[in-house]
Amino acid sequence: MKPKVLLSEDINPYGKKILEHKAELIIAPDTSEETAIELIKDVTGLILRATTQINKRVLSHATKLKVIARTGVGVDNVDIEEASKRGILVCNFPGMNNLTVAEQTISMIMALSKQTLHMHNSVKNGNWNERFSTNQIEVSGRTLGIIGMGQIGQLVAQKCQAGLGMNILAYDPYVREKTTNPYINFVPNLEELFCNSDFISIHVPNLKETKGMINKPLISLMKKTAFIINTSRGEVIHEEDLIEALQNKDLQGAALDVFQMEPLSLKSPLQSIENVILSPHCAGSTWESNVRIATGAAQAVLDTIEGRTPSTNIYNKDLINKKA
Ligand SMILES: NC(=O)c1ccc[n+]([C@@H]2O[C@H](COP(=O)([O-])OP(=O)(O)OC[C@H]3O[C@@H](n4cnc5c(N)ncnc54)[C@H](O)[C@@H]3O)[C@@H](O)[C@H]2O)c1
What we know:
The protein is α/β, with parallel strands linked by helices. The chain has two domains: about 130 residues, Rossmann fold, CATH 3.40.50.720; about 180 residues, Rossmann fold, CATH 3.40.50. The protein is built from twelve helices and 13 strands. The protein has a seven-stranded parallel beta sheet with strand order 8-7-6-9-10-11-12, with helices on both faces. It has a six-stranded mixed beta sheet with strand order 2-1-3-4-5-13. Nicotinamide-adenine-dinucleotide (NAD) binds next to α5 and α7.
């Protein structure tokens, strides 16, 4: 009998091709905890996307599970400690969608500065004369403040500086070499970045330390003409504080790909605030990145099922060794 592999959500067909002759693939009908519990019982491998929560309760039913391949970088939807206790490998795929997220960030900067959504809606609503509105701006010469200068933050900095002529401020207390790129000005604290940026883009992981780090006191330092962009994790921004500031017009607008609760509720005030661009946690998804990630995840699951150590990043390698 073929081993069973659960896909928490569908993946790119190139990934499924790697597994389909070697395993029985089960695609979960939804991302709820109850469905995960029901389906995880029989499976040897799990290919996990961002929404389904693999917590302690779900894992307590995963008696046959050997590997979780998380199709992205963030493993915050997996209880790593519990998975490690159970000897389940957790693989992730750092770097495979860096370019995708950087490009999406830039598209959000451009859409905010050019009022793309507003202009689109104006044409649809017959307000052709919005073309005379002077609220669109050029980004060249404006200052982009980047929080978190890891792989994605650095790409955004490089492209926005070299390609768009933006000035770059950066805040990242953990980057040691702060002077290799003379065009990036590291600031010693977030306050300085918030006071001086026209656009602020967040690229930090969701950690205890970063949860809610963008809060009212910081947002209140923003220029009223400034924009904030978040493609990292929703938890990093104190969402209620941001909503309040947007409603009070303390800043010009926001573009958000990630939220405190996903999917974002239709009742969220964010749905109706003007000058807010929303996307459904898709900043890391293009055809190209999806092929890279799906084939990587499928190969990691296949390797584990066939007794090989996956050649990708095993996130909990050290923990598994300690608990074994
Ligand atoms: N929206 C999406 O679809 C999507 C896709 C991929 C990645 N992401 C998210 O993008 C974020 C960045 O990913 P990455 O690959 O660049 O990660 P990375 O690990 O390469 O970089 C993160 C950087 O944040 C810095 N950092 C940590 N704590 C900090 C703090 N308190 N203040 C300032 N900087 C701090 C680290 O030093 C590091 O340089 C992550 O949250 C990841 O989950 C989202």
